[in-house]
Design a protein that fits this description.
The complex is a heterodimer of chains A (114) and B (187). Chain A is mainly α and 114 residues long. Chain A has four helices and no strands. In chain A, 55% of the residues lie in helices and 0% in strands. By secondary structure, chain B is mainly α. Helix content of chain B is 63%, strand content 0%. The chains are: A mainly alpha (114), B mainly alpha (187). Chains A and B meet through helix 1 and helix 2 of A and helix 1, helix 2, helix 3, helix 4 and helix 6 of B.
């Protein structure tokens, strides 16, 4: 009985907070969204910005998915190599797009040749 | 239920439902980021094998297919967040029918959340919220008041916050929530 009440109370508090947070995010201004992204060194106005991971390109590989024949683990290793190969090692754009596809393919070819 | 399958070769990449909604001006690019932050808030409350990105894409797939119509004059992000909530409930119903119990999902949570599962899972999430705002006493006061179901006036009265303090705390809270929702890696 006590556990049921505690569970109900904890879930009620959590639901209230999440509902409020959801409304706050929905009402946030464009400037606030851009500021939050800038805190993370993201610029949503740039093509292929990491901010759009999971929206306009995949967030990560799902179970059983592959990328050019690479498993999720191999792809994670590829992402690390790709990050290291970039001039700005902190730049989080880790998915291929029209601008960097040739770099990705070159890296995959290198890995396959090893 | 439709679930978007990403084509991983960028050369033959099919636009995701969210991308198509953006192209059709159903939402703005920054609305997509707001919705991403909201979808990620729901991430821990999704059935196994469904992630926040699936939830977001499914929301747009329903809008694009005409199953959900966005009413005129409403806040689109708030409306789509409501669609997300209803999809989440539907996913749980479906998961239950397919024999995936919530208990099995909770069993995958860290050991601290194992027993009694429901209470601890919620408490763990509440602790994460607390941690997100650690160091900001006014935001923590605000959260405590909200958790108790107090109104804005009651919160200001109880914690001695001026209207300006209250608004500033809400602004800091929004920024932290957005930051958490957009981060590449979350703790």
């Amino acid at each position: 009985m006590h556990n049921e009440l505690s569970a109900e109370f904890a879930n009620m508090v959590l639901s209230r907070l999440l509902e409020f947070f959801e409304a706050e995010i929905a009402q946030s201004s464009d400037a606030e969204v851009l500021e939050a992204a800038a805190d993370l060194r993201m610029n949503p106005r740039m093509k292929g910005s990491a901010a759009f991971g999971g929206i306009t390109y995949p967030w990560g590989l799902g179970r059983g998915q592959s990328f050019y024949g690479l498993s999720a683990e191999e792809f994670a290793a590829l992402q690390r190599r790709f990050r290291a190969a970039q001039d700005d090692a902190e730049w989080p754009d880790l998915w291929p797009d029209g601008a960097n596809v040739s770099d990705w393919l070159a890296l995959i070819r290198q890995l396959r040749e090893k | 239920m439709y679930m978007h399958t990403w084509k991983l070769s960028c050369l033959e990449r099919e636009p995701s439902p969210a991308e198509r909604a953006l192209a059709l001006n159903i939402v703005s690019d920054l609305d997509l980021l707001r919705l991403k932050a909201i979808a990620r808030m729901h991430a821990r409350r999704l059935p196994p094998d469904v992630n926040w990105s699936d939830l977001l894409q499914e929301t747009f797939a329903r809008v694009l297919s005409g199953r959900r119509r966005i009413p005129e004059g409403v806040n689109r992000v708030a409306f789509l967040a409501g669609v997300m909530r209803s999809i989440r409930a539907e996913l749980w119903r479906r998961a239950y029918l397919e024999g995936v119990s919530y208990a099995r999902h909770l069993a995958r949570l860290p050991r601290e959340a194992a027993s009694p599962e429901r209470v601890l899972a919620a408490l763990q999430e509440l602790a994460e919220i607390q941690q997100l705002f650690a160091g900001d006493a006014e935001v923590l006061d605000l959260i405590e008041g909200l958790g108790e179901g107090l109104s804005a006036d009651e919160i200001r009265g109880r914690y001695g916050l001026s209207q300006a303090d209250y608004d500033a705390a809400r602004k800091r809270m929004r920024r932290a929530l957005l930051r958490k929702g957009l981060a590449c890696i979350t703790n």
